[in-house]
Amino acid sequence: MSTLGIPAPVRRWRDAVLPQSRALPAERSAPATLRVRSVTKTFHGAGGLVTALDDVSVEVQPGEFVCLVGPSGCGKSTLLNLIAGLDHPSQGQLMLGGQAIERPGADRVVMFQEPALFPWLNVRDNVAFGLTLSGMRRAQRYARAEQYLELVGLGQFGRAWVHELSGGMKGRVALARALVLDPRVLLMDEPFAALDAQTRDRLLLELQRIWLETGKTIVFVTHNVREAAVLANRVLVFSARPGRIKAEIHIDVPRPRELKSPEMLAAANRISAELESEVTISEEQEMATATARNFASHGLLWRL
Fold first, then answer.
1. DSSP alpha helix (H) spans, 116-261
2. What is the CATH number of the domain that holds 147?
3. Is residue 208 part of a domain?
4. Considering only Cβ atoms within 10 Å of each terminal Cβ, which end of the chain, N or C, has fewer?
């Protein structure tokens, strides 16, 4: 498929989903344990080698809802990209169902911060798009798309165009498009970050309902401790860079959960307490990096 004229968020979604979407959903949706074993990820930055993740190990059981929380730059999204197969670890191994993760696949579907919908397709065709390479007949694709649009509360909007949707509706379409592929693991990278507070709160309730109905394994990246508390069975708190798992917090509260309930506020406070010192360290790191860049820039101008 040509990349000409395709927005970058759409290309990211396509590259994360389509390479192995020829497999039928039933062939890739069997429950499987996700294992991250001693994973380290380094990359070359402007100031030299940067360690984004350092010796991270975690196991996610089938049907778990796990949230990754940490300060900016701690490697949360880096880990999500590694699980998706969009990048490779410098050390360590990632496995799903006993198979090494080496490339993107439709058994691991990513929801990015941007909905990444195709503006030239209507809602139903957007949801059905990932099924086109599976060999599924059009009528079956449309039936599955309509099923998942009903699941996310948009059953009446299949023929609507993307530009006619609100931000919250676009997020629901993106969720339906991910779920229609019936992946083993749904990877969500701050999908509600750009939404207003009221829309986000409604979607948090909806996502809980959908998770209960589908039983999907979900790994969810967020900066919002209240969001993590209300969604997760288990919250993994990351340290400042280099990212390590500092704490593991289990949230044993019945669903549906309300953001303002005493139990959720207590859980959010526990997460915040673990995060506080890491946020301070992260801010100091950012300040030091900015200062170094400033000195380097002034030094270059002085030499000129």
1. 123-128, 138-151, 167-179, 197-214, 225-231
2. 3.40.50.300
3. yes
4. C
Residue 1 in domain? no
Six-digit token string for 251: 């949230």
Angle between helices 167-179 and 197-214 (to 10 degrees): 20
Q: Which helix (H) or strand (E) holds 111?
A: strand 108-111
Closest CA to 177 of 8, 10, 7, 6: 10
* Chain segment 181-223, per-residue pLDDT in tens: 999 999 999 999 888 989 999 999 999 999 999 999 999 999 9
Encoded amino acid at 144, one letter: R
DSSP 31-79: ---EEEEEEEEEEEETTEEEEEEEEEEEEE-TT-EEEEE-STTSSHHHH
Residue whose structure tokens are 């030094």: 299
Q: How far apart are CA 230 and CA 157, in angstroms?
A: 28
CA nearest to 238, candidates 228, 100, 85 = 228
DSSP run (H or E) holding 186: strand 185-189
List pLDDT tens digits, range 106-122: 899 999 988 989 999 99
Structurally, the chain folds into a number of domains equal to 1
